[in-house]
Design brief:
Blueprint: H1 10-16, H2 25-32, E1 36-41, E2 46-48, E3 56-62, E4 65-70, E5 76-82, E6 87-88, E7 101-104, E8 108-114, H3 115-124, H4 126-150, H5 155-166, E9 177-178, H6 185-192, H7 196-208, E10 212-215, E11 218-221, H8 224-232, H9 235-244
Antiparallel strand pairs: 1-8, 2-7, 3-6, 3-8, 4-5, 4-7, 9-11, 10-11
Length: about 270
C-alpha cells in the first residue's frame, strides 16, 4: 500500500504523536508500544463507518484522514481533515456506535488501540489523559467552527474563511502559502455543505480578486489575512484589493497566463 522506502520503527512515530510527547522511551515501550497495532490504508479507504460498533481509537501517523457525516438527503458533510499526530475515533470511549465516517485522503499509516487499553493508559499516565482532553477539546472547537462557517455568511465568505483556516501555520505573515495536495473542490465543498460547482464558481472569484492562485495541482493562498477579512465581510479591504487587481480597461488582471496545469480542474484529478 505504501511504495516509499524503509519505514521508521513504530516507536519513532509514537514519539512524534502529540498525545505521547511527554512520555520517555521507556514509558512508550511499557505503556504504548505493546498495546498499539500499526496499520496501513490506501487512498480513499473507509477506516470505519457511522452507526457501526467500535472499540478502537486511532492515532494518525502519516497521511490525512477526512471525518464526515452523511445527511438525511445523502450529502456528505466533512467535519474535519486530520493531519499526522491527530487522534480520532475517541467517541467509542463514551459507548455507543460510531457517529462519523473516517476516510483516508491519501495513503495513511495509522496506529490502532483498544478503547479499554486507552482508558487504562490514561489512568496510569495522567499527562496522557490531559493531552487527550486537549485533543478532544480541539475537535469540539473544529465542530463549532464548522457551524459558524455555514451559518449567516454568503458562500463566497464561507469559502474564503475555510481557505484561511486550512492555511498551514508557522508561515511568515504576508507570505504566500500552498495548501496541501489532495484537498479537492469536492472535499472542500463538502466541508461547507455546498455543491462542488458552487464552490468552484466562488473559488474562481477569489482567484480573480487576487486572494488565491493555482500552482500546478495545488492552491496557493496569496493573502491569508485578506481571506479572513473577506470572510468577515470587511468591504473596504475587499474593495481596495479588487481595485489593485483591475487593469486599465477595468477587467481583472490574471495572476498568471492559463496553462494546462493551471486550469480550474487541474487539481481535481
Amino acid at each position: 500500500m505504501d511504495s516509499g522506502g524503509p519505514r521508521p520503527p513504530k516507536l519513532w512515530y509514537l514519539k512524534l504523536n502529540r498525545l505521547f510527547r511527554s512520555l520517555s522511551d521507556e514509558d512508550l515501550h511499557r505503556w504504548v508500544d505493546r498495546i498499539t497495532v500499526a496499520m496501513d490504508y490506501p487512498r480513499h479507504c473507509v477506516i470505519y463507518m457511522a452507526e457501526e460498533p467500535g472499540d478502537h481509537v486511532f492515532l494518525l501517523k502519516r497521511g490525512r484522514v477526512r471525518l464526515y457525516h452523511v445527511t438525511d438527503d445523502g450529502r456528505e458533510l466533512t467535519l474535519a481533515v486530520l493531519e499526522p499526530g491527530d487522534v480520532f475515533g475517541e467517541e467509542v470511549l463514551a459507548g455507543g456506535p460510531r457517529r462519523t465516517f473516517a476516510e483516508t485522503l491519501e495513503p495513511a499509516h495509522v496506529c490502532r488501540l483498544r478503547g479499554d487499553d486507552f482508558v487504562e493508559l490514561m489512568r496510569g499516565r495522567p499527562e496522557v489523559a490531559i493531552e487527550a482532553l486537549r485533543l478532544i477539546a480541539g475537535h469540539s472547537m473544529r465542530a463549532q467552527a464548522q457551524v459558524e462557517r455555514v451559518a449567516g455568511r454568503s458562500v463566497a465568505q464561507r469559502v474564503a474563511g475555510l481557505l484561511a483556516e486550512l492555511a498551514p501555520g508557522g508561515v511568515r505573515p504576508g507570505a504566500p502559502v500552498d495548501l496541501a495536495p489532495g484537498l479537492t473542490h469536492a472535499t472542500m465543498a463538502s466541508m461547507l455543505g455546498t455543491a462542488r460547482q458552487t464552490f468552484t464558481t466562488e473559488m474562481g472569484r477569489l482567484v480573480r480578486l487576487g486572494y488565491v492562485a493555482r500552482a500546478g495541482r495545488r492552491l496557493r493562498l496569496l493573502d491569508v489575512e485578506g481571506l479572513r477579512a473577506f470572510a468577515r465581510g470587511e468591504t473596504d479591504r475587499i474593495r481596495q484589493n479588487a481595485d489593485r487587481r483591475r487593469g486599465p480597461n477595468g477587467a481583472y488582471l490574471d495572476e498568471r497566463p492559463a496553462t494546462p496545469a493551471a486550469r480550474p480542474h487541474a487539481h481535481e484529478a
